[in-house]
Design goal:
Elements: H1 3-11, H2 14-23, H3 28-45, E1 50-54, H4 61-69, E2 72-79, H5 82-91, E3 99-103, E4 119-125, H6 134-144, E5 145-156, H7 162-176, H8 185-201, H9 209-218, E6 222-230, E7 233-239
Parallel strand pairs: 1-2, 1-4, 2-3, 4-5
Antiparallel strand pairs: 5-7, 6-7
């Protein structure tokens, strides 16, 4: 079973999508901070009355923030899981006069459906870690952006070192345990292993920050930066040359 089919099998179920909407996902406070950073970057860097593509919108948490900004004339909202996108569509019905919802599997060849150089900005939050091969995906993002267009990416990260992997795994386990003051080492290790298995089952394929930065540059972007990181979440910005 491919990583792609794993993630879609998990997320493309109405009961999972509804549960995800109610819970806000894993580590909602940290997620909220990441979304606010991504939103701020878009508002600062994207021109007013521009055209935006959102890749992997899920149930529409970040989409709501974009709509509320009143920054964009057109927003194309996509996700590979129809069940998640159905929730987003229902939540945002009538919220924006030019809001389009489309099922798009960003693991495949999707750029051609939009044409080249047609968006002022592309944004993705907490979605692209479900893609095994990041470079073909980033290259397609590059292709659909207009010259001078901006790509804002917020996502789950992996550590680059053994100690980093341990610390991230430990922090995630404490999050799942609701951060108790005292926790037995054996329990912590058990939860860390369960979390690793859960990520595998959901088709997560995270990379270190250094890999994301290098792959964005290899895909043609310039002025690539990681501007925020908190353990396993990070936000990047990348510019397509004029």
């Amino acid at each position: 079973m491919s990583e792609r089919s794993k993630s879609l099998q998990v997320y493309d179920r109405p009961e999972f999508a509804e549960r995800f909407r109610r819970s806000g996902g894993f580590a909602p406070e940290r997620k909220e901070r990441m979304l606010e950073v991504a939103r701020e970057l878009l508002l600062v860097l994207a021109p007013k009355q521009s055209r935006l593509l959102e890749l992997g919108a899920g149930t529409g948490d970040f989409t709501r923030k974009i709509v509320a900004s009143k920054r964009f004339d057109e927003i194309v909202v996509t996700d590979g899981a129809a069940a998640m996108l159905d929730v987003a569509t229902e939540r945002l019905a009538g919220a924006h006069p030019a809001l389009r919802f489309e099922v798009v599997d960003f693991n495949g060849q999707w750029a051609g459906r939009y044409g080249m150089t047609c968006f002022d900005a592309v944004v993705s939050t907490l979605a692209l870690h479900h893609t095994v091969e990041k470079r073909p995906l980033f290259r397609q993002v590059f292709e659909v952006l207009k010259p001078g267009g901006i790509f804002v990416l917020g996502d789950h990260m992996a550590a680059a070192t053994r100690i980093g992997r341990y610390l991230i795994g430990r922090d995630r386990a404490l999050e799942r345990l609701k951060r108790p003051d005292v926790v037995a080492t054996s329990l912590l290790e058990e939860v860390m292993e369960l979390d690793r298995q859960r990520q595998f089952d959901e088709g997560n394929h995270c990379e270190p920050v250094s890999v994301y930065l290098a792959t964005l540059v290899e895909s043609g972007f310039e002025e690539v930066e990681c501007l925020w990181q908190d353990f396993w979440m990070a936000v990047f910005v990348a510019l397509k040359p004029q």
